[in-house]
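Extended Data, panel c. Modelled sequence:
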Amino acid sequence: MKNIARTVLVGVVALVMGLTLTSCTDDSSQDKENKAKQENYDHLVAQQPAGRMEYSPTREAINQWIKTWGKRGKLSYVYIQNAKGEYGYFIMKGLPVPRCKMLTPTERVESSSDGIAVLPQPGMDGTYSSGSTCNAYYGFDATTGAYMEFTIGTNQSFFLFDKPMTMPEYASAKQLGPTSVKDVDKQR
């Protein structure tokens, strides 16, 4: 009886080890495709290596953005164009912020014997986001500090400037928030 149990146990261990070893050497079509993609990429990089730039206009633009918006109290002038082509404006402290931006991670990665799972995290308000809030922006009025929120979508656009615009389409824009360009000019 012990020999039969021992034989069955050895068979089960061999089967588990065999399955484990075969899972480590995956020759699936997806694995073959991934290898082919990597080989093709390696070949192209060898044939056409990335060039070197002497100067980066992109880095200059990012640094200029940092200089412009990295100042406490900086005002932003948000001009909104509706479907009729009419303009209105808000003046905000700082930049308008997309509602989908968070100060904490929105996901966490957990690994288990079943693999890796990416799980959503609640926001600062204790609720979960569907990610559909990226077309809604908020900020605070330049003089009153009033909370303001606006949504951009079909047939509506917004244009952001760090100074009031004088071009005709912007000059005739309707004041949409508590603060006007004249209010800001008086404070300077």
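Helices lie at 2-24, 29-47, 57-69, 168-171, 181-187. This feature is highlighted in the accompanying rendering.
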